[in-house]
Design goal:
By secondary structure, the protein is of the alpha/beta class. It contains six helices and 14 strands. The chain starts with a strand and ends in a 9-residue tail after the last strand. The model has no long low-confidence stretch (mean pLDDT 90).
C-alpha cells in the first residue's frame, strides 16, 4: 500500500519529499514555488477548502502552477472539481467529497477523478466492499477536522486573519478536551483532540493508499517510519476514528 503525506508547512514538505517511502505529497498551493517543480510528479496542490470570495484569485494561482509544471491538485468539493478541470489539472478527490458507496465512487470516476479519499465515516468493512474504478485511499493519521468554519472561534467570530497567522491556539469543549484551531486564508478548521493512528492496522484495509495528515507536527519522520514498519507511533491520546465502530 502506498503512503501519501498531507503537509502544512515548508519544513514538513521537505521532510516528506526526502522520504522515499512517501509516494505523493499534498501541499498548500502557496508553498509550491519554482524550486519544487522538479518534484511535480509527486506533488498534489491543495487549494483553499472554501472558495467563497476567492475563486478568481485561486484560479489565477492554479494557472501559474500549471505554467511551472505542476499537474495534480486535490478537490475538496464538487466546486473544486469544476475549477480544477477548467485549469487543466489531474483531479484527486478529498475526503470531504463524502464518497460513501460504490455508486458515489462511479460518479466521481465519471467526473474524471484519478483517485479519491473515501469518507472518514466509513467502517473498514464498508471500505473493503466498495467497487473501486479509480485508485482509492483513506485517512490513516492525523488530527482529523471536526468542523470547518468561516469565522474564527478564538477571535469571537471575527475573520481569522489568513494562513500566515500561526496562532496555534485552541478552544475547549464541554468535556475539557482541547481542540486546536487551524487557520487558513478564509476558513478555520477545528481539529479533534485525539490523533487518528492506524499504523498497525493498514493490513485491514483493501485500498491503494493511506493518507498521513500532518498539521502542527514538528517531526514527521518518526510517524512515517512507524507507518512503513507497521508500528504504532507513540501518542498520549489516539483514536481509531470510526473505522471499527461506525457512526453511532
Amino acid at each position: 500500500m502506498e503512503l501519501r503525506a498531507w503537509v502544512r508547512s515548508a519544513e514538513q514538505l521537505d521532510e516528506a519529499l526526502n522520504d522515499g517511502g512517501i509516494s505523493a505529497v499534498c501541499a498548500p498551493m502557496e508553498l509550491l514555488d519554482e524550486k519544487y517543480a522538479v518534484y511535480a510528479d509527486r506533488l498534489i496542490a491543495l487549494t483553499p477548502e472554501f472558495l467563497g470570495g476567492i475563486e478568481e484569485k485561486t484560479e489565477r494561482a492554479l494557472l501559474r502552477l500549471r505554467e511551472r509544471g505542476f499537474r495534480r491538485a486535490l478537490a475538496h468539493t464538487t466546486g473544486h472539481i469544476e475549477l480544477l478541470g477548467r485549469t487543466g489539472f489531474e483531479i484527486c478527490g478529498g475526503s470531504r467529497l463524502n464518497c460513501t458507496n460504490s455508486e458515489t465512487m462511479r460518479f466521481y470516476a465519471d467526473c474524471g477523478l484519478s483517485d479519491i479519499i473515501v469518507s472518514t465515516e466509513l467502517t473498514v468493512q464498508r471500505i473493503n466492499r466498495l467497487e473501486k474504478p479509480i485508485k482509492t485511499g483513506f485517512m490513516a493519521y492525523g488530527a482529523m477536522p471536526l468542523m470547518l468554519n468561516r469565522r474564527c472561534p478564538v477571535r469571537d467570530g471575527k475573520p481569522c486573519g489568513g494562513a500566515d497567522k500561526k496562532c496555534g491556539r485552541q478552544i475547549t469543549d464541554r468535556k475539557g478536551n482541547r481542540l486546536k484551531v487551524l487557520c487558513s486564508e478564509n476558513s478555520v478548521e477545528i481539529l479533534n483532540s485525539d490523533t487518528l493512528v492506524l499504523s498497525d492496522k493498514l493490513g485491514d484495509f483493501a485500498a491503494d493508499f493511506a493518507m498521513l495528515r500532518f498539521t502542527y507536527e514538528t517531526d514527521i519522520r518518526s510517524v512515517i517510519k512507524a507507518y512503513k514498519n507497521g508500528e504504532r507511533p507513540e501518542c498520549e491520546r489516539f483514536t481509531r476514528g470510526l473505522y471499527y465502530r461506525g457512526v453511532q
